[in-house]
Amino acid sequence: MDQTQIEQGFRLRTLIKSLHLNQTEFAKSLGTTQPNINRMVIGRNRISMEVLNGLASVYPQVNLHWLLTGRGDMLLEGVEGGIGMVREEAVPYRVKEKLQEAEQLAEEMEGTLRKLVKTLKG
Q1: CATH, domain range 3-91
Q2: What is the pTM of this model?
Q3: Maximum separation of any 2 CA atoms in the chain, in Å
Q4: Residue 89 — φ and ψ, nearest 5°?
Q5: Mind giving me the DSSP string for 12-66?
Q6: Chain segment 66-102, per-residue pLDDT in tens
Q7: Which residues contact 92 (CB under 8 A, 6 or more apart)?
């Protein structure tokens, strides 16, 4: 699984939730299967052209650019067809990067503390 697929899957899950649907209902509305949608949601498969075409047709208010890249809003302004949707901020799903950042910060803090202790003892 690559990072892009994981992030797109996270956005797809967010979209399904905002439509107040489960994966089965969402899949049915697009003419595909729940296992197919699930593989996309968990990041195992890329979002297929079949799903993108279905989204454009069934849910024209969905911003496909946002779904694929994370840029922009989930929903397009002024497009009819919203069914009680909520706007949710896309949260980057970058656990590995965040863990590396945290480890680096912990190392820097440890070094700073060692210097401070050494200075106080000295």
Answers
A1: 1.10.260.40
A2: 0.64
A3: 73
A4: -70, 130
A5: HHHHHHHTT--HHHHHHHHTS-HHHHHHHHTTSSPPPHHHHHHHHHH-TTB-HHH
A6: 999 999 999 988 765 544 444 444 445 456 666 677 7
A7: 7, 70
